[in-house]
Amino acid sequence: xxxxxxxxxxxxxxxxxxxxxxxxxxxxxxxxxxxxxxxxxxxxxxxxxxxxxxxxxxxxxxxxxxxxxxxxxxxxxxxxxxxxxxxxxxxxxxxxxxxxxxxxxxxxxxxxxxxxxxxxxxxxxxxxxxxxxxxxxxxxxxxxxxxxxxxxxxxxxxxxxxxxxxxxxxxxxxxxxxxxxxxxxxxxxxxxxxxxxxxxxxxxxxxxxxxxxxxxxxxxxxxxxxxxxxxxxxxxxxxxxxxxxxxxxxxxxxxxxxxxxxxxxxxxxxxxxxxxxxxxxxxxxxxxxxxxxxxxxxxxxxxxxxxxxxxxxxxxxxxxxxxxxxxxxxxxxxxxxxxxxxxxxxxxxxxxxxxxxxxxxxxxxxxxxxxxxxxxxxxxxxxxxxxxxxxxxxxxxxxx
Length: 400
Prior knowledge:
41% of the residues lie in helices and 12% in strands. It contains 14 helices and 12 strands.
């Protein structure tokens, strides 16, 4: 039997993909499955963005792209952060990547060695630990429970830092909890970071425009510009502009780190699709007036699901501040048995039984480093969400 590299052996595929695949298989077998497992906007890519990609292809913009991104797109990213956060970013310090995920990959490849520790507040998107493992570093999860609003507390961060700590990974609004930082909360974390000048910070802002109840996005570099020499900010067009399949993200940070990340990208993939970059440029420089309406739709969906789930015995659902997920606590359902005779010992048992007996796909919280919860994507219609919530309520009511 072939023995693969240690990096492959220690890296697992994300549970979100596995659950989505199981849901597709049941649907293919003729079952009416509502899948709330993937974090993908159900809105279409804006028409003017698609048109820009078509125009780029038609005029022959189909050659190898610049390794770091087109000058126009890097300029647009810099102007976006100037416009939204007052940050003076040089286009030369922007690297365009194959989605936000490659930006994170590049940073970890550029910064970490075997034995380095990467601090990640939990719950956390499974892809972070996956990439840390692949890089050969070690994940240090810091629990951020529901009673703290799923927010990283300064004292908990301070306790997690050791001489081996290399990188802190922040993600607000958060996947899977939807927690969003306030300025004061980020300032408190920045105060801890000032005491540890060797610790780098990656701020994953991919859900930056999906905020509710009048909140505005704040980013670490915006509130603590004195940390600029060790903060790298990651984002992209996937979530805001419903462009998951276009695979365009970016990072910006200190020039030396951006250069190192460019080397990592050159080794892995080279530059990003020229057609995708033309589309991303149109997204950033074109109309933005439709974005509040989309955020309002996600907020209405959040309200629907939170209200419904909090009526279900055994479930307690926090009200997210952003993103398009809810992350309810299902501890009250564990230890019980389903009508199909399954004992629900874990959140994984709950998720699989809900899929196979109630044909509703969610993802277990243990996949996000917080057992006892499930993640539900609200990036679908209110009609489907209502159906899913009704199925969850019926499933839970039948537990014994």
